[in-house]
Amino acid sequence: MQLNYDIKLIVLKEKNALITGSSRGIGQQIAIGLAQKGCNIIVHGRTKESNKKTLKILREYAVKTYSVFGDLADEGQIKELIDQVSALNISVDILYNNAGIMRDYREDIWSHTTEDWLVTYKVNVVAMYKLCGAFIPSMIKNKFGRIVNTTSRIMNQPELSPYGASKWAVDKLTQDIAFALKDTPVRINYFDPGWLKTDLGGENAENPVQAALPGALIPVLIDDDGPNGQFFSASEHKK
Question: How many domains does the chain have?
Fold first, then answer.
């Protein structure tokens, strides 16, 4: 996919990006990458305290920053998070559903509990759905919007079944929402950052967390009539 980055830089200037799970890891890298493009950043973490490191890093860039928080496994806190963002009185032009969890690796593949499944789906799928529902209508009204849902190409890992299944659900839900957006300037796509050294990916991961860039930015930089409901991968856009 060939993109004209000069044009896209102008498009993203002064846009507001909400990135879930941006207090650390991949989300933090996405926040840095978008700040470098001139985006204002709404940092999200589970707690207000957890956002401080990313906010400090972003001081280097000439952008506005905001802090919101909430546990995406808790439906009440998701609502409070949405209320916090709404209280900022700014548009959400970019929604990056990056936050995700993975329950413990289980050698006995039949021992995943109901709680394992439900909590994983709450964070990785339901929270994504709720946030899309909260912010996409205003994107349509404003005639601009980019939504990116972080997925994974994990496979042949029944020991991590709740996580793997949740990510396939992310893909399908993204495709379905894309169909509803096909006649609008709002684009929604899904992105695989690859296996990275993060708290979730672990120390044995193939690549450092910085390898999420620049690939993580590509689904945001596309034109209004660009890819919709499509898969993107960091491995296709390595530095």
Answer: 1
Domain residue limits at 107: 5-237
Does the model's pTM come out above 0.85? yes
CATH code for the domain of 38: 3.40.50.720
Contacts of 133 (CB under 8 A, 6+ apart): none
- H helix or E strand, kind and range, residue 189: strand 186-192
Q: Does residue 125 contact residue 76 with C-beta atoms inside 8 Å?
A: no
Tell me how far the alpha carbon of residue 190 is from its chain's centroid: 9
Q: How many residues does the chain have?
A: 239
Residue 42 contacts residue 70 (beta carbons within 8 Å)? no
Are the C-beta atoms of 147 and 133 separated by less than 8 Å? no
Q: Would you give the distance in Å from CA 188 to the centre of its chain?
A: 11
Alpha carbons 131 and 79: distance in angstroms, whole number:
9
Question: For residue 211, what pLDDT is reported?
Answer: 72
Q: List the chain residues with pLDDT less than 50.
A: 1-10
pLDDT score recorded for residue 169: 98
Please name every residue paired with 197 in a beta bridge, in sequence order, or none if there are none.
none
Is the CB of residue 191 less than 8 Å from the CB of residue 150?
A: yes
- The amino acid occupying position 73 is A
- Quick check: helix, strand or coil at residue 92? coil
pLDDT on residue 200 = 61
The three-point CA angle 196-15-223 to 5° equals 75
**pLDDT, position 2:** 44
